[in-house]
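WARN  no MSA supplied for this record, continuing single-sequence
INFO  ligand: uridine-diphosphate-N-acetylglucosamine
INFO  echoing inputs
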Amino acid sequence: MAKPKIVCVVGTRPDAIKTAPVVLELRKYARDVECVLVATGQHREMLVQALRSFGLEADRDLNIMAHGQTLADVTSRAVVGLDGVYQELQPDLVLAQGDTTTTFCAALAAFYRQTSFGHIEAGLRTDTVWNPFPEEFNRRAVGLVARLHFAPTRLAAENLEREGSTKDVYVTGNTGIDAVRMVAEQAPQTWFPSEERRIILLTTHRRENWGEPQRHIAEAVREVVDTDKGTVLVVPMHRNPTVREALRAILDGHPRVHLIEPPDYPEFVKLMERSSLILTDSGGVQEEAPAFGKPVLVLRTTTERPEGIEAGNAVLVGTERQTIVDEAIRLLSDPSAYQRMATARSPYGDGRAAQRIRHVVLSHFDIESPPEPMWT
Ligand code: UD1
Ligand code: UDP
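INFO  complex generated
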């Protein structure tokens, strides 16, 4: 029998980071399965940069990114492009992670060809399809057509069970925790080594925060560094020009604000470790920060990742200026409140998600491989 062919599809920075551990794990079993890495190129520099951190390069790249791309642009180009790739490669299984438009398109194109699809990071949900936009729609739609659901947590598996998926749901932990552990030891600490003040780290890019919410976020963090002179603010700017302009308009030129290019993944991980407080609307950062015991203020009105909040590492602060300022200042000035949030916990995984996924995927093709007890 020919070796099963597995196509892993990535398009954005988090796709690359969270899929890389699975690709690397499957490639250890190259005698049994073939694993082809396909990129839509929804992101360009940030995708290549993230793959490089794992020594990976796409085997095929549709290179679709354009500045000012709309959701419809990305969707139409990715579905048509991926359909051509599936036609050529004839995969036995397609894998993709999370809720990006690339992942939605990878699943839709597989559905049209009646090809099995495995969803990594399945089952995250908020209570409205409009938020996060369009990610909540993307992941619900992917869940409808997935044959294998790799839920990162028990809660995510329960979401899928409530929707009627009781078969082929596996609780694996999040592959993002595999990724962060893989690189945590890798990079030297080169970020702001002589900086004695406390570092506040900000990342923001979400579509639903564009415009006024992002302005409020930028004004809030400016007020925080102005109030607490013992802090500096570091802002790795997403490459989206809309996001950059909004941040620059309010934060550029401040003597204790560093607006920087997005660091490579290992360096970014070191920067998280070096920070005292993290403010973010990123999904991946919300998952990684608790592993280092870093308090996180989540700059969103709703989150599909309540585990960090329940564990006590994260607070959902929304995007109102005063709320963000109050919460940040409270944590920076109250050591016991800070300490309660600063315990390292890992509600999102133990670093072995890719091994669990590999075992399920190989079993799907009746291939034996070392089992890995499910994550609880
Ligand atoms: C996408 C995902 C979002 C994810 C985020 C991670 C969708 C709908 N959104 O949002 O879920 O959280 O990625 O970062 O899938 N750009 C570059 N170079 C790059 C990357 C982006 O110049 O390497 C610029 C381009 O102008 C591009 C724009 O950013 O048009 C927006 O990219 P897009 O993928 O449409 O949306 P994101 O906001 O990045
Ligand atoms: N990240 C990075 N460099 C940066 C900012 C983030 O490598 O400058 C990593 C981060 O550690 C996480 C991932 O990128 O693993 C999150 O990507 P992003 O915030 O763009 O997307 P989201 O997780 O919100 O979908």
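The chain has two domains: 5-174+349-364, 193-342.
INFO  checksum written, moving to next record
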